Amino acid sequence: MSALLWAVVAVCLAGACIMDCRTCQVYNFFWWISGAAAVSLLLMRKEQVGVEEVAELGIFILVQCTLFAKMYGRADCYAFSVCAAAEAAAGIGGIGFLAHMLGAFCLLALVQGIRRNIDSRGNLKRPVPFLPYITLAFWALLWYHYTC
Q: Angle at the Cα of 34 (from 29 to 36), degrees rounded to 5?
């Protein structure tokens, strides 16, 4: 059952990335479906989910949806929130959520720097979809968590 839920999260993230790259918009149903799958994974976890973990996840999602949604868009904030719930299901805590964000921003900066799409003030010259970077950083963090 958990493999199916991980597959749902993966397919939704991939679909959202494709849609973001093609139209620069993402339908909310991707986040409702993947969010439900991620929360189900969290509830099915072998270890009991502690109050501290729920608080870290709740605070992270609250900050994403209030502060960061204005910075980089709602779809990206929803993606970080879904990924955080899935990361919590894998046993990754609040520091991991922040590491995921940092990894996504570093990937974006690296790729866009190579493409010379960053102006002298540090802003992107042309906007690019952020979801592929979020997704890649998410899977890299999970890979690191499970292999190290």
A: 95
Q: Please say whether the beta carbons of 76 and 130 come within 8 A.
A: yes
- Per-residue tokens: 27: 């339908």
Q: Which residues contact 44 (CB under 8 A, 6 or more apart)?
A: 1, 2, 5, 89
Against a cut of 0.85, is the pTM above it?
yes
Angle at 122 between CA 118 and CA 124, to 5 degrees: 40
Taking the C-alpha atoms of residue 87 and residue 85, their distance in angstroms, rounded to an integer, is: 5
- CA 57/CA 43 separation, integer angstroms: 13
Indicate the SS3 state at residue 78: helix
Secondary structure of residue 130 in the 3-state scheme: coil
Tokens 């909310």 correspond to what residue?
A: 28
Mean pLDDT for 33-50 is: 93
Q: What is the pLDDT of residues 5-28, one digit of tens each?
A: 999 999 999 999 999 999 999 999
